[in-house]
Give the backbone structure.
Amino acid sequence: STRIFTVANQKGGVGKTTSAVNIAAALAMGGLRTLLIDLDPQGNASTAFGIPRDDLQGMYEVINHDLPLRDVLVQVSGYPDLYCAPATQSLANSEVELVSLVAREMRLKKAVTNFLNESAEKNQPFDYVIIDCPPSLGLLTLNALVAAKELLIPIQCEYYSLEGLALLLHTLSLVQEHLNPEIKLTTIVLTMFDGRTRLANDVAASVRQHYPAELIDIPIPRAVRISEAPSYGQTVMTYDPISNGATAYMAVAREIANRGVGI
Amino acid sequence: STRIFTVANQKGGVGKTTSAVNIAAALAMGGLRTLLIDLDPQGNASTAFGIPRDDLQGMYEVINHDLPLRDVLVQVSGYPDLYCAPATQSLANSEVELVSLVAREMRLKKAVTNFLNESAEKNQPFDYVIIDCPPSLGLLTLNALVAAKELLIPIQCEYYSLEGLALLLHTLSLVQEHLNPEIKLTTIVLTMFDGRTRLANDVAASVRQHYPAELIDIPIPRAVRISEAPSYGQTVMTYDPISNGATAYMAVAREIANRGVGI
Ligand SMILES: Nc1ncnc2c1ncn2[C@@H]1O[C@H](COP(=O)(O)OP(=O)(O)OP(=O)(O)O)[C@@H](O)[C@H]1O
Ligand SMILES: Nc1ncnc2c1ncn2[C@@H]1O[C@H](COP(=O)(O)OP(=O)(O)OP(=O)(O)O)[C@@H](O)[C@H]1O
Ligand SMILES: [Mg+2]
Ligand SMILES: [Mg+2]
């Protein structure tokens, strides 16, 4: 059955989008049918795939106006097995409007469930769904936590990164208790790792100690090629496939696929 | 009269907290009485000043329960002219509760105005108030935009940084039109600048072209000493005062003070 990941961390700039985009691309390069859902009003994941955000319908219409997910799907050029449900500018209005809607936390789950059922009936099942979240624990991230079966937390190897973890895990336990008993924290990825600094090594050591089972101990290095790729509308996988950034994300994706949902 | 800055950008991890904390510290080192208000539930600014966040009352009680700002103020050790109104864990509940409160966008403004009036009466006026915001355009950031007279936008020298600017400036114009005609975008600071990369130079050139008057053209370099400082509960100003990060923030603070509100 389809693995559904939410990539979340309310700390900003920790590599949520970069991890979601590059892991999705790597899985698709391995022949796995993958859908990336961009739930961040900034639409950075849509940009990373070179998808224009102006005149399209996107995740706002899906979540707030019950448009079927299949109607917003875009096939990502250069990756036959990769699709994206983009975030358009209007998604910025979503959270405020969701507050007073019925079943406000369940809207994405309904859309994703319907879509996956349709795909299976058409004999084009998806292997992975990856949801990129904004840097907050508001209703968009809650929708993602309800729709998903697995949580992937990117942790930047910097001091502030561990601060917000307790709040994120507390939110996860509330979701498990009241909205989605199925979701589990299965994957932690270390991002922007600069092995020359004491700080990065300290953070990595702390994560290894506290989350040995969830951690994929292949730190993603801080690498300029990774941050340059989106300016060409590409992922680092195609922008510079032999760079250490691309090979690290490839190895992380392979480990995710190999582990299965075992934890 | 007191200059009141909001440091905002919904893009995550662009250096809002790092800029707010180090500019506030630099102003205080120059003998200017400065208050930093931590409006981010993550409380990174409070951490940077070494303020414990567990058992205190903080900005949640001020905004949601009308506690006077003076009751949460903490004098920052090592800086006689620097005070902080910390964010405690409970601030995470603030936005959801604010939605249904009367005058929900004006609560911080009221608290700040009362506080500044009291301080003036006691002959201890403040020269600067700096408000650190979370990475979103929700009710906490709106409260900050309503309470402030000036907006300072940190722009990380990376590709995604310019994407969100239009949305931020649109939100600013809504606030100017309906809630606070006084606020102006007066200051833009370039952060995490690595002059060796084409990307950083492209972003800097673009900002110089579009916002020549607002930009303080002293890019803050990407520097490990800046990101290490919070792990010692210090700002880089005292952690490593002769580092290029500290001297850059010192120069930016001096430029802010010299310019006055002229723009
Ligand atoms: N391993 C890396 N090496 C170098 N730069 C990186 C790396 N990973 C991410 N970046 C850059 O760091 C910045 C932040 O990353 P990204 O936008 O993916 O984080 P995010 O958590 O999605 O941010 P937000 O909280 O705004 O959604 C981006 O400019 C990105 O290009
Ligand atoms: N000039 C710099 N050089 C190196 N590291 C930096 C620099 N400025 C900030 N950092 C580091 O980058 C990370 C992001 O910075 P910071 O937390 O200040 O951003 P922010 O915009 O406040 O994030 P958020 O959106 O989560 O509030 C932090 O780990 C910080 O220590
Ligand atoms: Mg992102
Ligand atoms: Mg911050």
